[in-house]
Amino acid sequence: MNTKSDNHGDDNQEKDGVSFESDDNLNSNNEKLNDSTEGSDKKQISEDQMGEKTSTEHAELGEEAIDEKYNALNDKYLRLYSDFENFRRRTAKEKLDIIKNAGGDVMREMLTILDDFERAIKANAEVEDPKTLKDGFELIHNKFLKTMSSKGLIEIKAMGEPFNVDIHEAITQIEVDKKQKGKVVDVVEKGYYLNDTVLRYAKVVVGQ
User: Fold this and answer.
1) Is the backbone of residue 196 left (phi > 0), alpha (psi -120 to 50) or beta?
2) To 5 degrees, how large is the angle CA 50–CA 56–CA 58?
3) Which tens digit of pLDDT belongs to each residue from 147-174?
């Protein structure tokens, strides 16, 4: 009897070879499971909160970095734009100065020829020999041509040349023999190149 009673007092009971836990053990296991679940939930919530905080911090740092980069690029752009505007104004002014004073060198050399003319006029008042006057004017003329040639001035060939609309300007046409048809038979006004560019067309009379 005592043995049977003791078996009923055990925490574990067996029935038909199957073992069952007592209510106390089940309650204890349930409490441990609940505690474990609550702890896991709290840990998960804490990790989620930390993740959200980290994401927010990263977002704030990203916005600050973007603002700094934008400010740096904007400042660089403004500096480059300012430098370009200064360069543009300076080059425009230099270009205008060059155009304005482009003839300065020629004018300085022309002044010497003007001096020669003034001296010739003064000397002509005291000279009676026509040959002396003629020689004086030829000297000034040759000096003038030499000065112009040094600046790239070249006379356009016209007399006896076939008429060319690119360098000649026909003033009129006259009847000529067959050999001279289409050719320049007279030059009314000489034409000139300046560095291979037509500066003035030669005004000519063309045979027909």
Assistant:
1) left
2) 100
3) 889 888 999 999 999 999 999 999 999 9
DSSP string, 70-121: HHHHHHHHHHHHHHHHHHHHHHHHHHHHHHHTTTHHHHHHHHHHHHHHHHHH
* Strand-pair category, 168-174 with 202-207: parallel
194 vs 174: CA distance, rounded Å: 30
Phi, psi of 89 (to 5 degrees): -65, -40
The single residue listed with the structure tokens 């009314």 is 188
Please state, in angstroms and rounded to a whole number, the distance separating the CA atoms of residues 72 and 88: 24
- CA-CA-CA-CA dihedral for 46, 52, 57, 63, to nearest 10: 180
Q: Is the pTM of this model over 0.70?
A: no
